[in-house]
Write a structure and sequence with these properties.
three-stranded mixed sheet; alpha+beta; about 350 residues; about 35% strand
Length: about 350
C-alpha cells in the first residue's frame, strides 16, 4: 500500500510548482501555508526559489525547477497531514516580521471559509486582496487581523495587502456583515459608496447596493460612527448603537431607526421580507439564487412579506406566488411573475 506521507509529499511538490507558476488553487495555498507554518525555517529556504515573474522579468520554468531541486535537496519533506478545512488560529505567525509576501497570500487563502459552490477564491492583484461572492453564493472569511465578514451574494470586498499595518480598511460593493476584533490603535473602517463606517467595538452590517439610493448600516452589537463622504465641507458624522439602523442618503444626515427583527436573517441563510417593496425584494432573490426575474409592470407596486429558508429556487415558486397572489413560472434560469 502506498504510504500516505508519500502522496502528501507529491501533492506538496505539485502545489509549490503551481504557486510559482501563478496557477495555484485555493487548496494549493492552504497546503503550502500549513506546511511552512509547521517550521518557520522553511520560509527562508523557499525564498531562494524564484517566483514565476518579478515585475516585467519572467523566470522560466526550467529556472524555477532547478532552484526547487536545490532547495528540496536540503529539506526533508515531512508532510504528515493535509488540511481539509481552514483553521485561522494556526495561521498567526510567531515572527510577523519574517513572514514573506507569498506566505501572506497563502495564509489569507487559508482563512477564507467558503459557503457555496466550489471554485470561489480570494484573489490578489495590484497590492489589493479581493473577495467576491458570486450570484448564488454567500461567503464568510476571516481577515488578517482576526475580524470576520460575511458577504451577501453578488458582493465584493477589497483590502490592502498591508491591511493592519497602520489601519484596517475594507472597500465594500454590495452587502456584508462584520464581526470586528476591536483595536483602538488601528481603526477598522468600511468604505461603501458615499459613506465611511468606523468600528467602535462591534458587530454590524452594511448594505450599499448601487441600485439603492441609501446606504444602510445595522448595528447588532457595540457602536459605529458613520460619516458622509459626499459632503466635503462639513461631513455628517452619526454614531449608531446596538439595535439601531441608520439610512444614509446621498446627501445626509443619517436617518436612525430601530433594527427590524429580521434584518440580519440572511447572514444565517434565511431570506425574510417584511412588507418589502417588490422590485427591491426581487433584486435580492436574483442575487441569492443567480436567476433573472421578470415581473409584469402591473405588479411592481405590490409588497412582499415572506420567509424563505435555504432551499432550491424551484421550491420557492408556489409560496412566492401565494405571497404575491400572482402566477410564478420558471423556464431555465428565468422566473416570470404575472397576474393570475
Amino acid at each position: 500500500m502506498t504510504d500516505p506521507r508519500d502522496i502528501a509529499a507529491v501533492r506538496l511538490d505539485h502545489a509549490l510548482d503551481r504557486m510559482w507558476a501563478g496557477m495555484a488553487t485555493p487548496e494549493d495555498e492552504v497546503l503550502v501555508a500549513d506546511w511552512v507554518t509547521a517550521d518557520p525555517a522553511r520560509a527562508e529556504l523557499l525564498d531562494s526559489v524564484p517566483a514565476a515573474a518579478v515585475g516585467d522579468v519572467l523566470v522560466t520554468p526550467a529556472e524555477t525547477a532547478a532552484a526547487w531541486a536545490a532547495v528540496a535537496a536540503r529539506l526533508e519533506v515531512d508532510v504528515v497531514r493535509l488540511i481539509t478545512s481552514a483553521r485561522s488560529s494556526q495561521m498567526a505567525p510567531s515572527r510577523p516580521d519574517s513572514v514573506r509576501p507569498w506566505l501572506l497570500r497563502a495564509a489569507a487563502a487559508v482563512m477564507v471559509v467558503i459557503a457555496g459552490a466550489a471554485g470561489t477564491r480570494l484573489m490578489t492583484s495590484g497590492g489589493m486582496s479581493e473577495l467576491v461572492a458570486p450570484r448564488g453564493q454567500r461567503i464568510s472569511a476571516t481577515l488578517p487581523d482576526g475580524s470576520s465578514l460575511t458577504l451577501a451574494a453578488g458582493s465584493r470586498a477589497r483590502w490592502s495587502r498591508d491591511f493592519g499595518a497602520a489601519e484596517r480598511t475594507v472597500l465594500l460593493d454590495g452587502e456584508a456583515f462584520f464581526d470586528i476584533v476591536h483595536d483602538t490603535t488601528r481603526p477598522f473602517r468600511v468604505r461603501a459608496r458615499h459613506s465611511v463606517i468606523e468600528d467602535i467595538g462591534t458587530r454590524f452590517a452594511v448594505r450599499a447596493w448601487v441600485e439603492l439610493s441609501d446606504v444602510e448600516i445595522i448595528v447588532e452589537e457595540g457602536r459605529v460612527s458613520v460619516r458622509d463622504t459626499a459632503v466635503t465641507s462639513q461631513p455628517h458624522v452619526t454614531e449608531l448603537h446596538a439595535g439601531q439602523r441608520g439610512l444614509l442618503p446621498i446627501r445626509g444626515p443619517v436617518v436612525v431607526s430601530t433594527v427590524p427583527a429580521t434584518a440580519l436573517a440572511w447572514v444565517d441563510g434565511t431570506l425574510q421580507f417584511d412588507n418589502a417593496a417588490l422590485p427591491e425584494a426581487l433584486l435580492v432573490l436574483e442575487r441569492w439564487y443567480d436567476v433573472t426575474i421578470v415581473v409584469d409592470s402591473s405588479l411592481t407596486r405590490r409588497r412582499l412579506s415572506a420567509r424563505f429558508e435555504a432551499q432550491p429556487i424551484s421550491q420557492l415558486l408556489v409560496p412566492l406566488g401565494v405571497a404575491l397572489n400572482a402566477r410564478v413560472q420558471q423556464t431555465g434560469n428565468v422566473i416570470t411573475i404575472a397576474p393570475r
